[in-house]
Amino acid sequence: MYFKKLIGQKCYLSPINVEDYEKYTKWVNDMEVSAGLVFASKLIGIEAEKSVLERLSTNGYNFAIVDVEKDELIGNCGYPKLDHINRIGEVGIFIGNKDYWGKGYGQDVLNLLLDFGFNVLNLHNISLKVYSFNKQAIKCYKKVGFKEAGRLREAKLIAGKAYDEIFMDILDTEYQSIYVNNIVDKKSQR
Question: ∠ at Cα 149 (145, 152), nearest 5°?
Fold first, then answer.
């Protein structure tokens, strides 16, 4: 079961449902899906993934990504790192269902996360990390407004080839709210 916490144009963000552990286990063990993620070299069984989902569902700000039309789970996202004193957060996004790749879902998810981060969590700077081989993700991040902030050169080795780890960020002053401000405006007009 999913709950529409944040609703975008293509998808909505819901609290994570731990019962989806089998679907996630399939995704995290698919090398095409996990290649750019920190757990790509790990073997993750059903019990381990269930444990991860239990932790993610109770700690911090982590969401299931659900297709708005089909109510189908397609991945998860959230804030793995938050520093409320300095008002900074790191965002992460994982679309495990490959049928949804390259169709604008990542952009919709990021807009929801940025709106939530800047307007609800009161963050000033939101960052992310991506490997240089992930051209599609980099293009998506730039469309939303992220800018390259730096690189750790040749930080990822895959099949004997080195790739940079790229750090990107966006400030609250650089982001135009799409969702949260609309909700507040509607309530103030009543």
Answer: 130
Query: 18 is written with which tokens?
Result: 């731990």
Beta bridge partners of 177: none
What are the tens digits of pLDDT across the range 108-161? 999 999 999 999 999 999 999 999 999 999 999 999 999 999 999 999 888 899
Q: What is the pLDDT of residues 159-171, one digit of tens each?
A: 899 999 999 999 9
Within 10 angstroms of residue 44's Cβ, the number of other Cβ atoms is 16
**What was the pLDDT predicted at 39?**
66
User: Per-residue DSSP letters for 70-139?
Assistant: T--EEEEEEEEEEETTTTEEEEEEEE--GGGTTTTHHHHHHHHHHHHHHHTS--SEEEEEEETT-HHHHH
For the chain, domains (ranges, CATH) are: 6-188 (3.40.630.30)
Distance CA 91, CA 81 (A): 7
Does residue 63 sit in helix, strand or coil?
strand
In order of 132, 155, 158, the CA distances from 164 in angstroms are: 5, 5, 11
